[in-house]
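Lecture 7 notes: from sequence to structure.
We start with the chain below.
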Amino acid sequence: MIDFCKMEEKDISFLTGLLNEKDIIASLHNAVKNYEEWLETYNKYWKNNSDESHFIICFDGIPVGWLRLNGLSNTETAWIAMLAVSPEQQNKGIGHCAVAFSEEYAKSKGFTKIGIHTTDENFIAQKLYRKCGYSIVEYGKCTTGDGANRMGYSYMKNLI
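Predicted structure tokens for the same chain:
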């Protein structure tokens, strides 16, 4: 069973471990941060940010991923800002469920579109978004979490 729980401070330890896994760093191009840095990010930027919602994804009660939605202060388009699933839990439908959850969450908040960005070498993410009915709306240069410039895609899906 897959559940989505609002992220809390107690989840920062899990998040730190997840985002510092070699495969996650490589696919998301994240900067490596230690527990204290993620805790500071949570308390300073995420905890009371009405533009974002963060969820810990649990599979059979065990944390296996993180979902971050943003753009929630807008009126038309919400964004899946981050979707990370532990490598050993991938290919079990968790990413697909996370995308479906994101869409339902966005619809419940009155959004008519949802989008997501990914880099051009993240083939797993691209396959997931196409499978979930997303269309490419833009291809161009982007700056990733590690500060590097890469080529990437913007995907969009109408929710109505």
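Points to note: The longest strand covers residues 149-158. The radius of gyration is 15 Å.
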